[in-house]
């Protein structure tokens, strides 16, 4: 599975700033007030040809009565359980605090690579002061400033050096489908129904799932891998944030997949957590099929599939060009349609459109509805080509690429979807100098 790096530490040491620097985007909220990181944030980092996922956690506070801080503490521990590499962050401006000692004590028994990151080392005096952190006893200790970026290159070099080698690629070049969703929506039931075997434990207890399982499927002229974020429970924890855990697991499965089957509970509808997963899939440019499971349990007099689908698509906007399947994994209703739609989406995502065809179809549309003029000069798209990426992405070459705004970019994407079948697939549109 995809490698995962977790950033941990007490509140207000700069974890979110480091996260933003690693992923190259301002995704995490940054504030001087401790505890600002409410939701866990997930991002992707690339360095020297290697990629890994990053999870930003809230500040760890030991022996607190604050309910929110207790919740953050449980999520930090879960992130540590899942991570391949742990970045333990401290602040040189405050020196070693009791909370730093608490975090260090928690991390020392862990048999995983741990890097101590001493933050805010931005001048010579602080470089000297930072040496006291060697006393925490971590062999890999790096001094840096996450705000200015000083020392970040050395830290990234160390991260990719100690990341475990990925397992060998699956033998066949066939679709990889990841089944993701909130706990207890029926992911394991769907996998079992498709494989005709009780490969996974299925219970009514949310969170039975713990391991991602890769299953080879070759039936009814369909050949693919199923990546189910489900399996035998590794360990029992009384206080556990299952919502956080489900996203953490799903992120790793999404990274490995070509197409994601996002399962919803028909009775619950689409919730905030489902939307979070949907946006992660979209951001990772993976194909997606939405499956409304347990449809048989809904009262059909007050809920028709057409009305339900309309409400669902409204919530998925602006990217709502996705297949929606109403199914029952337990009763095995429409589970083959789930596979059929997933394979269609895989083919849509894999298609390569010839440059000649792209220009023949799209240029007349853009000439009829050109982008708004820039300082009285017409912006003209000269030609279009598909980029050599794993998902559909298109470069539009023009005279003023930086002056084409988001509304026109959305217009172009809608026209591409209208002329070519990209149902279920996020697409990329970029503008370049001719």
Describe the structure.
- The chain is of the alpha/beta class and 434 residues long.
- 33% of the residues lie in helices and 21% in strands.
- It has a six-stranded mixed β-sheet with strand order 2-3-1-4-5-6, with helices on both faces.
- The protein starts with a strand and ends with a strand.
Structure characteristics:
alpha/beta; 6-stranded mixed beta sheet; 434 residues; 33% helix; single chain
Assembly category: single chain
Radius of gyration: 24 Å
Shape: globular
- Helix-strand pattern: EHEEHEHEHEHEHEEHEHEHEHHEEHE
Number of distinct helices = 12
Major sheet details: 6 strands, mixed
Summarize the topology:
Elements: E1 4-8, H1 15-23, E2 41-47, E3 50-56, H2 67-82, E4 85-91, H3 98-107, E5 114-119, H4 124-129, E6 140-143, H5 152-162, E7 176-181, H6 187-195, E8 213-219, E9 222-228, H7 242-256, E10 259-265, H8 272-283, E11 287-293, H9 305-316, E12 324-326, H10 335-350, H11 355-368, E13 381-386, E14 393-398, H12 406-419, E15 428-433
Parallel strand pairs: 1-3, 1-4, 4-5, 5-6, 7-9, 7-10, 10-11, 11-12, 14-15
Antiparallel strand pairs: 2-3, 8-9, 13-14
Helix pairs in contact: 2-7, 7-8, 11-12
Give a quick rundown of the structure:
About 35% of the residues lie in helices and about 20% in strands. By secondary structure, the protein is of the alpha/beta class. The chain is globular, with a radius of gyration of 24 Å.
